[in-house]
Amino acid sequence: MSKTVSTGEAGTASGFRLFRPILAGATLRERLVACLGALVGITLTGLICGLVFGQGPHIPLIVAPMGASAVLLFAVPASPLAQPWSIIGGNTISAFMGVLAAHFIPDPVIAIGVGVSLAIAAMSLTRSLHPPGGAAALTALIGGPAVTSAGFLFPLFPVCVNSVILVALGVAFHKVSRRNYPHAPVAAPVNTHGTADLPAPLRVGFRPEDVDAALLELHETLDIDRADIDRLLRQVELRALVRTQGDLTCGEVMSRDVVTVGLDGRAERARELLIAHNIRTLPVVDRAGRLAGTLGLRELTLHGDVGIAQVMSEARTTGPDEPVVSLAPSLTDGRTHAVVVVDGDRRVLGIITQTDLLATLTRLLSARAVAPAESVPA
């Protein structure tokens, strides 16, 4: 059945579409944070430069490209173009290219073209590509008497000083707002067994060379780190698995009769429990029954009969209502043998091991294989 949309409704929908973020992952909160960050960053950059170098018409306290740098720094802090070296190096090097072009080329029209092209080449060679750098090069060429009189000092002040101050303020702002900056891509899984095999998550599905081939086929340059693309695609795979096979929850699959050890116990007692029950992970609980960590033979082998609190590791946890298939990344990382199911107060409800996950996935695959056959009429 088709649905007819009135002109008014269509116009309203179209109008609202204009305000939808064009960046993947962008939210209203993120945009508001970016606005606040730019307000603080640009204002303080100008104030600091004014206090340090004094104010006057002969001194440009802050250059216009800093506004564009602030957009990247505060709105898309994960972009490779918004990282500290890109901002500082890109702006400074580009401004130097602009001054260089102005110094050797008398024709301003030719100079501005050469200056920007040299800026792109220099930023590419120094791995500091930063779009506002093109504006920094132009500012060096057409900035007026204040810039011209500064000569080859212009790339250092105000351009480099502005960039350093803006980045420093950006780092502080993102730390306060609990955002990751400078952006550090999550390290790829490594083989924890000291062999030449690929880690288990990388042996199936797509591989890094597949991503590289796809990027070549698209004939596009994407403003995202290569490692982030890989991580994004693997997360998409996981979300698709959860969506299609997420009916079984951790609460349905977990073992409920959990063997635990007290936080104030000794390592020898934990070793006895692991061997007696033939298990690889032992949850550690405090006197209130809350999860404090986990122990395995790996930790106990490296130490004598010491206190459990001294050798336990941080526990991997989940909630009872979470899809059990969402534990696949944790239980295939080569280090985690079990995930502890806890409630809101971190009290232990159950535990899910690698064996539990394997049995669950086997059941799901078997069900999918049988379903089509059952649906065929006799």
TrEMBL record:
PROSITE patterns linked: CBS
InterPro entries documented for this protein: CBS_dom, CBS_dom_sf, HPP, TM_HPP
Keywords, in A-Z order: CBS domain, Membrane, Transmembrane, Transmembrane helix
Residues annotated as domain CBS: 254-310, 311-370
Protein known as: CBS domain-containing protein
Parts of the chain that traverse the membrane: 31-54, 61-79, 109-130, 150-173
